[in-house]
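S.,

Sequence below, as promised.
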Amino acid sequence: PRITVHILGRMVYIFLMHVWPFFALPLWKAVIWATVPGILLSVCFMVNTQINHLTNECAHASDDTNFYKHQVVTSQNFGNGSLFCYYFSGGLNYQIEHHLFPNVNHCHLPELAKGVKRICERHGVPYHHAAGYRDAMERHVAHTVEMERKPVS
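The prediction came back faster than expected:
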């Protein structure tokens, strides 16, 4: 069944990334093999998630208790329609739809985005979108700069 394949896949990954290198490579190469890919993937993941949530438009949710509205207003899509953004982010550039439909495979998110955007427009819910990585990163940095300012009392 599916769970067996999942567990076997995890075991193969752990073996290839964290066991095999120490038997097949010199120690210094094994350490690099076992750590550098994880570090790079972690940095990529953090960049892709932070630019989707930590912007001036998304970081401050309203007091509205509607779960779905909250998912939309606290997320931002970027680079919709860009194959580079889609593949490099693993589909996380459709963050709004990812939060609304967390169990749906990312390959379906671009199609869902069209309907979600129409529904948001119909109900007056802001649907945040950045043009691409550069625009999303600029919005994130602007929010970070804004966060360092002391609030006026």
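Helices lie at 2-24, 27-53, 67-73, 83-89, 95-100, 109-123, 133-148.

Coffee later?
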